Amino acid sequence: MPDVVCSRDGAVLTITLSRPEVLNALTRAALGELAGALADAAGADVRAVVLTGAGRGFCVGQDLRELTGGEDVGDLLRTAYHPVVEAIRTLEKPVLAAINGPAAGAGLSLALACDVRIAAEEASLVPAFSGVGLVPDAGATYHLARLLGPARAFEWVASGRPLAAREALDRGLVSEVVPGERLAAVAAERAAALAAGPTRALGLTKRLLDAAPGAPLAEQLRREAVAQVEAAATADFAEGARAFLEKRPPRFTGR
Known about the structure:
Helix content: 40-55%
Shape: globular
Strand content: 15-25%
CATH superfamily of the largest domain: 2-enoyl-CoA Hydratase, Chain A, domain 1
Number of domains: 2
CATH class of the largest domain: Alpha Beta
Strand order of the largest sheet: 1-2-3-4-6-9
């Protein structure tokens, strides 16, 4: 059985981590399959992505049995984790995490790398790194510093304390909390709405927001101007302008 399962509904690709017997703990093989799925998501027929987990968990991070077997941690990060995180961030279309259960360690890192996070009521976010004597990795420090600020990020990571879904919502780590039985439907609905949007403009927006923290104003203004020229040349902008003048909803095609 594959460790990662993909399904399509219109322009939405759902990627499901599928090792439910170990709460979707990650191995090098599973990360390779995830990287392949994200590469497929770059196709023009996909306009939004949902990342979720099978069974009771979203993902509890690295399968430690692989590390105790002699795996080089640095090599594992550089060759297996980093390509996945970079693929999520450089994919110029929305990626939504549907957090159905615990997101711990590197599983938390994957959720944080996504553009939107929706959590089931029973989900939890667990910065499990310090509990096993490790540092946050797979982009966790990058994203937590931006979402929480360095001081609050350090306090949480150092404590190792799980955050229930509602507390994660209060801290801005997730955007929505829904009953578990509704998570898949709500995630599909949100992803479909994003997929119906102006795909190129959303992708450019994602790129701009990633570059913004710490960028000098003049440089960010330059980046915005370059991106706006690209967006203005799309068929979606022409459709959006016509729809505005005709007082009707736009029908974007992603081109």
